[in-house]
Amino acid sequence: xxxxxxxxxxxxxxxxxxxxxxxxxxxxxxxxxxxxxxxxxxxxxxxxxxxxxxxxxxxxxxxxxxxxxxxxxxxxxxxxxxxxxxxxxxxxxxxxxxxxxxxxxxxxxxxxxxxxxxxxxxxxxxxxxxxxxxxxxxxxxxxxxxxxxxxxxxxxxxxxxxxxxxxxxxxxxxxxxxxxxxxxxxxxxxxxxxxxxxxxxxxxxxxxxxxxxxxxxxxxxxxxxxxxxxxxxxxxxxxxxxxxxxxxxxxxxxxxxxxxxxxxxxxxxxxxxxxx
Length: 276
Prior knowledge:
- This protein is mainly alpha-helical.
- The chain folds into 2 domains: about 1-95; about 145-275, Tetratricopeptide repeat domain (Serine Threonine Protein Phosphatase 5, Tetratricopeptide repeat, Alpha Horseshoe), CATH 1.25.40.
- The chain contains 10 helices and 2 strands; from the N terminus they run H-H-H-E-E-H-H-H-H-H-H-H.
- The protein has helices at about 1-20, 25-30, 35-135, 150-165, 170-185, 190-205, 205-220, 225-240, 245-255, 260-275, and strands at about 140-145, 145-150.
- The protein has a two-stranded antiparallel ribbon with strand order 1-2.
- About 20% of the residues are buried.
C-alpha cells in the first residue's frame, strides 16, 4: 500500500514539474491565444490544488502516524510504569516474606531450644524417678549362705548395725538391730540381725534379753547355719546368770543335736571342765 502511494505522489510531482516547464516563455510563445493561457492556468491551478491536497493529506497522515506512535509510546510508558510498580510491589512483598521467613526461622529455633530444654528436664526427671524406683525395687543378695530379695534401705540399715557392732559400738548396734527388726520383721537378714543383737546384748550384760534374742532366732529358723553358735551363746548367758544346771543342759543338747559343729566341740570342752 505504501509503494502505490509513493508512485502516485511521484507521478503528480513529475506532472507538476512539466506544467511549470510548459508555463515558461517557450510554451507561451506556442499558444498566444487566451484560450491556451486559460487552459494552462486552469491546469496549473488544478495541479497546485492536487499538490496541496496531497501535501495536506501526507502531512495529516504523517501527523496521525506521529500521534499514533506517540500514543503507543505513551501506552508503552504507562505499561512500563505499571510493570515497575508491580516489580517494586513484588520486591516489597518479597522483602516482607523474607523478613517473615527469617522471623519464622528464629521462632522455630527458639521453639526447638525450649522443646530441647523441656525434653532434657523431662529426661532428668525420668532418670531421677528411675533411680528412686531402683532404690525401692527389691534386688537379690547372698548372705551367710542364703539368697534373698531386699530393698536398698533395708540393706543399708542392716549393714549400718553390723558396722557398729564390728567397731565395738555395741549400744548403737543394739539399738539399730532392734530398729531393723521392727521395720523389717520378715527380712532375709532377720536371723542374722537376731544373732548379732543377742551378741551385742551379751556384751552389754543384758543376758536375759540376749537369751530371748537367740531363742527367737532358733525358733524362726532351726536350720540356720548359726543355730549351734546361738545355743552355745545361750549357755554362756546362763552361766553368767549363775544358772549352771540350765547351762549344762543347753550344752548337752547342743552336742546331741549338732555334734559335728565347732560349737559342739567347744560345748564338750566346757562340759568336761564343769565335771571337774
